[in-house]
Amino acid sequence: MNFPILEKLNPAVAALQPYEPGRPIEEVAREFGLDPDDIVKLASNESAIGTSPKALAAMQVALPESYRYPDGGAWHLRNKLAEHYGVDRDQIAVGNGSNEILELLGHAFMVPGTSVVSSAHAFIVYKLVAQLFGIEQREIPMTSGLVHDLDAMLAAIDETTTLVFVCNPNNPTGTIVSNDAVCRFMERVPEHVLVVFDEAYAEIALSPMPDTLQYVHDNRPVIVTRTFSKAYGLAGLRLGYGIAPASIIHCLQQARQPFNVNLLAQVAGCAALDDDAFIKAGVATYHAGKAYVEAACRKLGLPFIPTAANFMLIEVGDGAAVTGALQAKGIIIRPVAGYGLPQYIRMNFGTAAENERFVDALTDVL
């Protein structure tokens, strides 16, 4: 029904194309008449080894307290993160996933007349947040290897620019910029710009990560965003955070809604930070998966983008068609035409058995 209120809809909201996540197992099962237990989901870069056991145990203990509101300031979690990273508690903001931190940056720093800079083929939420706040987003072409062109991103900055997003490793390409490249970038970036290092895959990166926290320690205008979704297997809880100078974090806290991180997420996050064994097991799983899938792609003659994350891009020609054919076989992966890469599919590394099913199905549908 066309209610009169819809005539007053925010034009920026009306123009938005909502984010499309990886399809749920149950939805694919219904569409293709498949048994949900036989479906392999490799579409959302989720943990291949489940959830941190320490986080699960902590949630079991806290579950009876679910009738109470959570700590609105996430005191224990922010203290734990501060200790983990060697910063002060007031340098930590927590969110309902790191996506909320990105949106809070929009509330704080995306005002009419400003602009933001990011790479083309980078995490699409940067574009969505910029559109939501009605500001200019400058998408800079990547290199031929689908790596951030930091020099070109620097050249796109002007006096209107408030934020520059560097997703590292980048989603969906899996590529990474080196510590040397980041250092050269930070030597030249203007002081009026806040640099956002989005590091959702840092703990499970398959190549060395740049030391971006050094800029926080040096009190530079930098925020490092991370999440518990990938490395710790807490995607269903929605828990992320940002690390920045206290004056930057204060701005985000002013815009943050009360009780934005639930009780179970807070206790799970505290416990997960002590689960080094789980992180090591995940990294080993992803290294093995990467080696297996890359070898299969070479055998099939399929080009791929070398990855530093728990997922990879594979060039298949018609990504949407291959995605649909794989779904019919009970394999959920991700088409990336929405990122301007219609010739690719993105798959995340699963267990050895899941990776084998993916390769077998991909071989069949090509």
What would you say this structure looks like, in words?
This protein has helices at residues 11-14, 25-32, 53-62, 75-85, 98-109, 125-132, 150-155, 179-188, 213-217, 246-255, 263-272, 276-300, 319-328, 352-365, and strands at residues 40-41, 92-95, 115-119, 136-140, 161-167, 194-198, 222-227, 240-243, 304-305, 311-315, 331-332, 334-335, 344-348. It has 366 residues and is of the alpha/beta class. The chain has two domains: 19-50 and 276-365, Aspartate Aminotransferase, domain 1; 53-272, Aspartate Aminotransferase, domain 2, CATH 3.40.640.10. The chain has a seven-stranded mixed beta sheet with strand order 2-8-7-6-5-3-4, sandwiched between helices. The protein has a four-stranded antiparallel beta sheet with strand order 9-10-13-12, covered by helices on one side. Strands 1-11 form a two-stranded parallel sheet. The chain is globular. The chain starts with 10 loop residues before the first helix and ends with a helix.
CATH architecture of the largest domain: 3-Layer(aba) Sandwich
Number of self-contained structural domains: 2
Radius of gyration, in Å, reads: 21 Å
Structural class of the helix and strand makeup? alpha/beta
Low-confidence spans: pLDDT under 50, at least 5 residues? Answer: none
Number of helices: 14
Q: State the strand order across the main sheet.
A: 2-8-7-6-5-3-4
CATH topology of the largest domain: Aspartate Aminotransferase, domain 2
Q: Which H/E pattern describes the elements?
A: HHEHHEHEHEHEHEHEEHHHEEHEEEH
Give the termini separation.
44 Å
The helical percent reads 25-40%
Report the sheet-strand fraction.
5-15%
Q: What's the CATH H-level homologous superfamily of the largest domain?
A: Type I PLP-dependent aspartate aminotransferase-like (Major domain)
Number of strands: 13
